[in-house]
Amino acid sequence: MQYGRAGPRAALPYAGRMPKETARKTVDSQPREIELKLAVSAHELPALRRRLARFGSGEEVEVDNVYFDTADGLLRGSRMALRVRRIGRRWVQTLKTEAKASALSSRGEWEVPAPRGRLDLGRFPVTPLTALLQAHPGARLQPAFRTRFRRTIWNTDDGAIEIALDEGEIVAGKQQAPILELELELKSGTAEALYRLALALADKGGAALALRPAVDSKAVRGYRLAAGESPKPLKANASAVAVSLRRGTVLGAALRGVVERGTTLLLANAAGSLAVADSEFVHQARVATRRMRSAVRLLGKPAGWPAALDSELRWIARRLGAVRDWDVLQAQTLPALTAALPAAAQPLAQQVARVRRRDDEALHVALAGARYARLALRLLQWANTATQDGPTLASAARKRLARLHRRLFDSASFFVVLPVEQQHRVRIRAKRLRYALDLFAAALPTGPTARYVEKLAHLQDELGALNDAVVASELTPRLARAAAVDAAPAHDWLEQQRQQRALRAEAALAELARMRLPWDRGAIT
After folding, report:
1. Which of 294, 326, 367, 485 gives 356 a disulfide partner, CB atoms 3.0 to 4.6 angstroms apart?
2. 364, 384, 361: which is closest to 372 by C-alpha?
3. Could you read off the pLDDT of 370-410 as tens digits, one per residue?
4. CB–CB of 433/456 below 8 Å?
């Protein structure tokens, strides 16, 4: 494949057979690239350039890359990116590896010359790609997609951070996608300095810019474009948020880990919701936010959590929650109501769709705005601060879980006859216990914990369905007035649903109360 004078001139497929001399080399210590990538809005680009001028005029270079993979995406599936790059008059070939998607990328990076713009894997030292290709001897590398952009480069006064503003496009066949992003690469010091610089460039108040941390690299976007894929929602479940936690993890480190992963999931799903009409993005972004808030409530004090962030997390949670409530009403409650009372449900459905669009537009404005971008940067900045010694998950689990369990059942007595507000409190306390169990799971016995979580999840499902019925019942009169219909039939039907759900939730509470507590004395060693 030939790209002409602007790009790699003869980027030939590679058969995957490593040269003998390369195969005999020992593995070098892995070089790392630590980088914060920020999405830039086109209308804010002039203001950003004015702020970057404090570092000088900058050096402009034209960059042209061709990325390589096998026809079946072997490198993509192994979270690797291999490219040949022309930057100015220089040719290089680079391999990057990444263990997980993150707003702050810490990647393996190997870069060697690429004479005449040709891919030549024999010039690399032994890398993870070496073993991958040796395990797939028939693999053939071929061009997958291309990126072209103008890069303007600055350096901070102390040389600790390289700043690169990229403006261009990703090209895959006839498909194109724009590139407009700011990369802050750490040359020396700690990652926290990247966030200080990003926040300084973004500023705050009326002059603030929406410099949003970006989870997807150019390579990830290019692979997706070449495959004709759209972004997919990322689950904000326990395994995704608490993946790095161990029983000996200090509470401060545990909370920082949850905040870092939770913010990454929030950013990825929020970006997806701006690009694709799929309600699951909002749902997973909301779950990520809830998990962070629950962990902060549980561990914030010993971890040194800055209370100033509480109101901002609550703000974005409410924005996400407003849209999610309409999604649940549309997808779950209205179909059942339509089957029972079609005449009453039809005008209500139309009104729900209208109000949902209004709240969805407000959420999009928030997610594209400077307040949300600054919140994400501040969360990630705090997550990358140093952790002090202190209690561990294992030493703190019993006391904290026992207290949450006691509060749940103290508030749940005679559940069916409780006022709606108190039933809602039971739901919130069940959710807090579930999230706490996910957080402390590494310090608990696996079997008893899994069985207890299964029963608790069932209770949450019943309480969630009850809450959906309550929300629908509260919203129906307002929607009915706007739609000029009688709300009574729908309201009566929803009240019956609420009572049935309350009975089922009480039965689930009784089942949970009979379960052995996995944090009981003797269970944690």
Report:
1. 326
2. 364
3. 999 999 999 999 999 988 889 999 999 999 999 999 999 99
4. yes
